[in-house]
Design goal:
By secondary structure, the protein is an alpha+beta fold. It contains 9 helices and 19 strands. It has 2 domains: about 260 residues, Probable tRNA modification gtpase trme, domain 1 (Gyrase A, domain 2); about 80 residues, Beta Barrel (Elongation Factor Tu (Ef-tu), domain 3), CATH 2.40.30. It is about 20% helix and about 30% strand. A 6-stranded mixed β-sheet has the order 10-11-12-9-3-13, sandwiched between helices. Strands 14-17-16-15-18-19 form a 6-stranded antiparallel barrel. The mean pLDDT is about 95.
Length: about 350
């Protein structure tokens, strides 16, 4: 990782811990995210490697999605719940050769690793943080399929969540209206890849662009600060292929299934726009016109290139679709509800 960090510093990267803030032109870079092909460092995200003869069986009993469907050609969104069906973490699960990789914010990796180990018992399963050995980057934009295929020397997948591992590379197509790829490889290989892509006029931008594109795609990211708050359906996970209702038992499965088949969902995930004169923070509460109690929470938020903020919020369906919704207090900044790029009431086959 030191080689990679030094390489990006030479390219003008401004760092804050593991986050690349920008490459010297923050305003220009922010505008580029929605209009150009862009390249992002994802050092703020970690990779937890899961190996062993019982890895598949073990993970199958933990996560909301069907781990048996993950292979060299297919990754998946998934979540890990507690016994009450509340989401602890959301992540991408990827197969790289014979090993599983859990791709999630680095800040939550140690806690996930520690908690997973609690359930291993006698299973042949090992966990290794490989975030220092493997570097994650992303390219997004209308020409990303062409540019990435040319840079890597092989065709990259064009369907959401499809993946390929060839040579040192593992490549995953990320869901969303903007073509976007997660690229995983060793640091030396990624240095070459970065050079090749920037030579094609792909603009390097700060790491926050990844979260901005996740928000626009309606893909929530849950980590430690919002753990235990939502069942997966509140995060629209059934609509984006993050739950398999036929896979069998896993932590919290009975609660999740009951919500799907026997209960009425009262809260769900909304795409929202907030004005520039507010200061939104993850976990902030929302209020209706006359509500003393919170009707929802802000899950993810980023500055929008066109001004103000864009975010994902879990809100009361009844309140959000009948009355104005305000941030932090009654009469606070009004949230504008936007259309998600998918039907939140649908159930995608996972």
């Amino acid at each position: 990782m030191e080689q990679w960090t030094q390489f990006l510093q030479q390219k003008g990267a401004q760092w804050d811990a593991r986050n690349v803030l920008n490459f010297g032109q923050p305003n220009v870079e922010q505008q580029a995210v929605l209009t150009q092909d862009v390249l992002m460092d994802l050092s703020a995200y970690g990779l937890l490697q899961v190996t062993g003869n019982d890895a598949e069986k073990f993970l199958q009993g933990q996560f909301t999605n069907d781990v048996r469907q993950v292979n060299g050609q297919r990754s998946q969104l998934s979540a890990w719940c507690n016994a009450k069906g509340r989401v602890l973490y959301t992540f991408h699960l990827i197969k790289r050769n014979n090993d599983y990789l859990i791709f999630l914010p680095y800040e939550g990796l140690e806690a996930v690793q520690k908690r997973l180990k609690m359930f291993v018992l006698r299973a042949d399963v090992q966990f290794t943080d490989v975030s220092e050995q493997l570097v994650s980057i992303s390219i997004a934009g209308n020409h990303s399929v062409q540019y990435l295929s040319e840079a890597l020397g092989f065709a990259v997948p064009q369907e959401s969540n499809m993946s390929i591992t060839q040579g040192q590379y593992t490549v995953v197509r990320i869901a969303g209206q903007t073509p976007r790829y997660l690229v995983i490889a060793d640091s030396e290989t990624q240095c070459q890849t970065w050079q090749t892509l920037t030579a094609k006029s792909v603009r390097a931008v700060g790491s926050s662009a990844w979260q901005l594109l996740n928000i626009l795609a309606g893909i929530p990211q849950i980590t430690t600060n919002l753990a235990d708050q939502f069942v997966p359906q509140m995060l629209n996970y059934q609509a984006i292929g993050g739950i398999n209702f036929k896979k069998g038992c896993y932590a919290g499965q009975e609660i999740v299934a009951r919500m799907q088949y026997l209960a009425t969902l009262k809260q769900r995930l909304y795409l929202i726009r907030l004005p520039a004169d507010c200061t939104p923070q993850i976990g902030d509460d929302f209020y209706g016109v006359m509500d003393v109690q919170s009707i929802g929470k802000l899950v993810n938020v980023q500055a929008h290139p066109e001004g103000g903020y864009i975010g994902l919020a879990v809100l009361s369906i009844e309140q959000a679709e009948s009355n104005p919704v305000s941030l932090q207090k009654v009469g606070g900044a009004t949230a504008q509800l936007l259309n998600l790029p998918y039907d939140p009431s649908a159930t995608m086959a996972a």
